[in-house]
Amino acid sequence: MLEELWVTAAHVRALDERVRGLVTGLFVTGSVPLGDYWPGRSDIDFVAVMEREPTAAELAALGKVHLSLPDAMPGPDYDGIYLTRAQLAAAPVDGDTAPQILAGDFQPAKAGGQLNPVTWLEVARHGLPILGERPEVALDSDVLRRWLLDNLSGYWAGFAEQATPQFAALPPDLAIPPDPVLWAVTGPGRLHHTLATGEVTTKTGGARHTADVLPQWSDLCERVVRSRAGGDEPFTAADGLASLSLVTDVVADARTRWHT
Length: 260
Hints:
By secondary structure, this protein is α+β, with helices and mostly antiparallel strands. The chain is built from ten helices and eight strands.
């Protein structure tokens, strides 16, 4: 695992060179501290803690920091968000923005993305410290629950609705890449798990949680778990269509359990 975290050392050096004193905390979140990291396939996620709001010049410098990192990056992407200590000390606010990088695209004032209460929960309970001490993090269970339900009813329900006609138009036995099936099967289950337990889980954990809660989908979930672990698991357009039905079922179950 130390090999995969070389990028964080390069990140800290670049921050010290370009915006010294602005960032005093760096924490790895996501699959690495939760034990579901697959070298060469999993992204590395981070939360950087800033002492204050950055100036325009510092925002430009942060963009240059990430331009200097690709050669050090061992996996697909190094994604993250920059939050001030004051932001973390209060619950996330709708419409707020923060500097974020996703799939190599640095946005100095992005709303949404990793600016959500699940990120707060990850930093507080699972963030792997690379630089500095863990900051004060405000955890609000009502804000978390509302965001999870909104994300299921909004993004995930919309995703299933939009993608279903595309898969339905394909021959059912047509081979497809695993990525869309893995995305659909793992994502909503992670949110459902957090609603049920108050804890974050991995993509693999999300698939297993769905298999437990909705056993009619256990076979597809187990195939996805095997694929994430590197197994040669084939998927077809029929599996893609089934994965979207799974999304719809997870959303409906959450709405029923938590009364939305």
